[in-house]
Write a structure and sequence with these properties.
Elements lengths: L4 H6 L7 E4 L3 E5 L7 E7 L14 H18 L6 E5 L14 E5 L9
Antiparallel strand pairs: 1-2, 2-3, 3-5, 4-5
Length: 114
Amino acid sequence: MSDCIFCKIAAGEIPAEVIHENDDLLVFRDLNPQAPTHVLVIPRRHIATLNDVQPEDAELIGRMHLAAKAVAEQEGIADAGYRTVFNCNAGAGQTVFHIHLHVLGGRPMGWPPG
């Protein structure tokens, strides 16, 4: 999608602090971090919301979570604990309509969130 900021980041048109990437995924630091470690895991392929995920995307969603685990280990937050979050649509806080998995850690997380 030509107007999607995450598609532009994935294409290298907009700079980001990339910490992991492969053919399917990109992981970069959030510009507005909500924790000492706050990264986003995005698929390179545009999918607007979780409501748009199809059964054939199940493996991609799984790979996003495996990337989150690897990044948590890389960032040194895996053992202390971290949170992963998908927001779906504006009412849940989604502001960029390209699915992305937040990985947050480095501080205690309260419950319930939000």
